[in-house]
Amino acid sequence: CMKEIPLKEFFERTSAPEHERVLSDSIGDAFLYDKNPVFRGVRNRVFELGFRPTANASMDYFGWPMLGLDEILETRLLPYKANLRALKKFANARPGHFVLGDVFRSFPERNFIFHESCHAIAEDVWARRIGIDRSNSKTVVERSLFGEACANGSELFSYAFTSCPEEEFSLIMNSYFRPIGKPHQALKNAVAALGAHETLKLTVLFYFHVNYFVRLTLERIDALIDMTLPDQNISADVRESIREIAAFASTLNEAFRKRTGELFLNFRGVDGTIEEMTRTTEEEMAQRSLKILPMIDEFAKSVIE
Predict the structure, then answer these.
(1) Residues 266-275: contacts with CB within 8 Å, 24+ apart?
(2) Each residue of 258-280: pLDDT tens digit?
(3) What is the pLDDT of residues 213-223, one digit of tens each?
(4) How crowded is residue 283: how many other Cβ atoms within 10 Å of its Cβ?
(5) Alpha carbon distances (Å) from 210 to 162, 268, 271
């Protein structure tokens, strides 16, 4: 059980090689870079785009993370907090006493470079394929929700490659997504049958719909599968695993997304309520999905090793 692992053992088991692209002072970062291909692929791609991590506390991100994305894109700096030393100080206060379960009672500051890096990569894909138009409200909404879907989808998809509870805890410390239940097997089944690239594409597409507050019914899920993989004969078992992935995507907190999504889009210059911004018809959503799929495809290819 993850929560019963002594902190001393967690530190020993998550020791990983030094690398110029890892954050050795961030809990689980080096371990995830070494073990998780999605985490590593995102880090490698964002470095290729010229972004670099920083613990500079003067960034607005540390004052209000909602303002952080545009600042990250402008400065090409990815803010994080050096939290490993604090966790070790906590463990060393009473050697052998504390376990991971104690950390769940009051988390150290978590880091979200993984999430923000996905946004940066998605923004690059959008800019090269369509261009950035800040004057068109509908396009601003689409671009913002595409980036969020790429980040949401990558966080969930990374669980396809977890092999131990220490890795799962490291993901919790480095992403917004915390699974309600166990998505691991459904993701592994889909990857085994379809490959990592196609599974990530579907996962991001599901989140894109969820971020538009479109309900993922079985009929809609099957339609999105057939749209994404038109030439594949998918077995009933694999289709069921894909439906499970869609169900996990649907667990995003709707009330939270409405509050923060509306405020963020207002900040980006879009007026109105989130309901007005995301109001859509079946036909519009189908056309939007066809438009977005090539960009999801490019995003997935850029982060899958």
Answers:
(1) 267/66, 267/67, 268/70, 268/134, 268/140, 268/144, 269/134, 269/137, 269/140, 270/137, 270/140, 270/141, 271/137, 274/213, 275/213
(2) 999 999 999 999 999 999 999 99
(3) 999 999 999 99
(4) 8
(5) 24, 20, 21
d(CA 276, CA 133): 20
* Beta strand spans in 25-133 (E): 52-54, 77-79
Cα gap 163→168, rounded to integer Å: 8
User: Is residue 142 over pLDDT 90?
Assistant: yes
Q: How far apart are CA 61 and CA 63, in angstroms?
A: 5
Q: Which two tokens stand for residue 68?
A: 């952080």
Cβ contacts of residue 286 below 8 Å, gap of 6+? none
According to DSSP, the β-strands at 52-54 and 77-79 are parallel
pLDDT at 184: 92
| H or E segment to which residue 144 belongs | helix 137-157
Q: What is the C-alpha to C-alpha distance for residues 4 and 98, in angstroms, rounded to an integer?
A: 9
C-alpha torsion sign, points 71, 27, 167, 1: negative
Model-wide pTM > 0.90:
yes
* Structure token pair of residue 248: 């996990």
The Cα–Cα gap between 230 and 235 comes to: 14
- Give the H/E segment covering residue 190: helix 184-194
pLDDT grade, residue 300 (50/70/90)?
very high
Q: Which amino acid is at 36?
A: N
